[in-house]
Amino acid sequence: MRYAMALMFGLLAPMARADCVILLHGLARTQASFAIMEEVLEQRGYDVVRPGYPSTQLPIQLLVDRTLPEAVDKCGTQTVHFVTHSMGGILVRYWFLRDRPQNLGRVVMLGTPNQGSQLVDQLDDLEVFGWLHGPAGQQLGTGPSSLPLRLPPVDYPVGVIAGDQSLNPVFSAMIEGPDDGKVAVDETRVDGMDAHMVLPVTHTFMMNSPRVIAETVFFLETGRFDPDITWIEAVFGTIDLDCKGDDCGPGSTR
């Protein structure tokens, strides 16, 4: 199924310029979670770097040092874009405090808890939470130890996609407002972002959604989202991702 979807994107969509995209997975996930996104991006002509990192074993600061410099080096002199899921976006924001590629392109964040996570606040006192999610997971709350809340606004091109569908009603009951089962929609927002979009997807699987993939590629190539892309257009690759300026539709839904 995933290969068929990637093939349809590749056959029906025009090729992009040869930029490099780093796909950074989230907490307690692996690089395999971005397999479909990688195939689609490669079909569009991007070079893709998909690093894995031990997300539950080290604090965010050490995960950054272990992961991002090496990943960016693999892109060489190309323009470097980032697509991140969940905590992956926090790693990028933290790294950019002290270092960022001179040839930085655009950043798409999927379900990133930019305002910290209410769910972490609720579960952090449980011993099993620390055991499963490690020191990095415990840095994602909204209290005094919150790393996301200590980060400054972004000053580079960022588009954020949030989900409002949940696979876990128990977790959702602990979160105020619409959520994706782990992160509230409002928690994904970050000051300085260029665009914000809410789609009917869940936290765990949003990166595999045809609509999310299409909007991600659209933002990488145009710096905006297109709220008029339909699910059918996303699956069959019939959207014009190479449009420019006003021809790209109504733009972001900030």
Brief digest:
With 254 residues, the protein is α/β, with parallel strands linked by helices.
The shape is globular
Helix amount: 25-40%
* Strand and helix order: HEHEHEHEHHEHEHH
User: Which structural category fits the helices and strands?
Assistant: alpha/beta
Q: Report the portion of residues in β strands.
A: 5-15%
What is the count of structural domains? 1
Mean pLDDT: 86
The number of E-state strands comes to 6
Number of helices in the DSSP assignment: 9
Distance between the termini: 32 Å
CATH-wise, what's the superfamily? Alpha/Beta hydrolase fold, catalytic domain
CATH class: Alpha Beta
Largest sheet: 6 strands, parallel
Strand order of the largest sheet: 2-1-3-4-5-6
CATH architecture: 3-Layer(aba) Sandwich
| Unreliable residue stretches | 127-131, 244-254
Q: Please name the CATH topology.
A: Rossmann fold
Give me some keywords for this one:
9 helices; disordered C terminus; 6 strands; six-stranded parallel beta sheet; globular; single chain; alpha/beta; Rossmann fold; 254 residues
